Amino acid sequence: MKKILIFLIVLSLFLNVCGFSLEDESCNNVSIDEARLVAFNHIVSVINMDTDSIWKEGVKFSLENVLYDLDDRPSAYYFTLTNLEGKKVGYVIVGADRDYVPIIEYSYCEEPVFLKDKLSGNGINGSLHKENRYYYFKGLSYFCKYSDGKKSFLMDMNNGETIEMNATNEFRLENRRALESKNMYNVWESLLVTNSSNPPTSGGCIYDPSAYESSYVSSNQSQIGLWNQSYNITSDFTVPNSACAPTAATNIFLWWYNKDSSKYYGLYDSNNWVDAYQDIYTDMETTGSSTLTYKLPTGYMRCFNDKGISYSELTLDTNVTKSDIENQTKPFHYCVYGHYNYGNHSLVGVGYEIYNYSNGYSSVYVRVADGFSRSANRFVHNGVGLSDTDMVKICLN
After folding, report:
1. What spatial distance separates the first Cα and last Cα of the chain, rounded to whole Å?
2. Which of 344, 330, 321, 339 is nearest to 380 (CA)?
3. In the chain, what are the domain boundaries?
4. The pLDDT value given to residue 242
5. What pTM was computed for the model?
6. Structural contact between residues 117 and 49, judged by C-beta atoms closer than 8 angstroms
């Protein structure tokens, strides 16, 4: 499943610990921590706008590099990005001066031009020693410092041309003119925004999502009809074994039965939820307490066909998004994996709470009947404190 939220929470926790504040206009230097925050908010913005972005698969910061001006002050910061498997998936370069543009460039490619060695083919191959100190002079002008043992040179990483260090006053003048032509304070202000979303990654159940959210710009919540009923729990069913997936299915059957008992009477097998549980346990090919996710839709289909129940939707969604959750008006089979409290577990989703932040990030909680409580009074964050989520959407005719 495409997931960015693991990255979001790790980074959000780090940023909140750092405690950022936007300084007044006269203080224009940007620290690497502030630059990382700007890069983070830019990544969130890209993910929200670009549905095909590879960053949706999950992304984290890797290598960080400081670029300098001719006075050896930071002029930009380079952040390498990797996916959750450690493969490079691009970079973001952030400026170090609030009078200039915040995002200098970004790409899904592995590395920027200034990391590419231009020594070969420039006529002086082998005569210069690379000092691995990079310079950024606004625009897309990147240089690397070299030395021949007597003099220091700047090499243009775009074309391989070299310039002596004492002949670079023209760049100072060019930089000053570039700065004088910019007024970027409002842009920086919009990017130097932290969110205060800290869903738990350890401990017990979530009962009140608002306890983990603050400084959000808006929030909304909703529950499906008949959500506040008494649910079955796994310990109600011991034969063949207690299992979470068929328990969740039985609770979905219970909801539909309570909605219209005369129409969906067949789901309440012989007035006995234990029999209904055993039927769906078999149909889902549950083994012990384990059910394979890809077998859930087929199991539901077999069960509905056997009981003469027709359905208009029965789909497995492995890309659970905010809009997927918002659009549900019926209970759905919700699967979590690697959850800090539930492990790999099936639950029933019956509502949500969502907290929206100014940087575009939305913190999404799903209200659940978890199979351990008879009330749907617990929540699961859709992405934080777990490794993945799936859902089976079910709508009966």
Report:
1. 29
2. 339
3. 5-191, 196-396
4. 96
5. 0.63
6. no
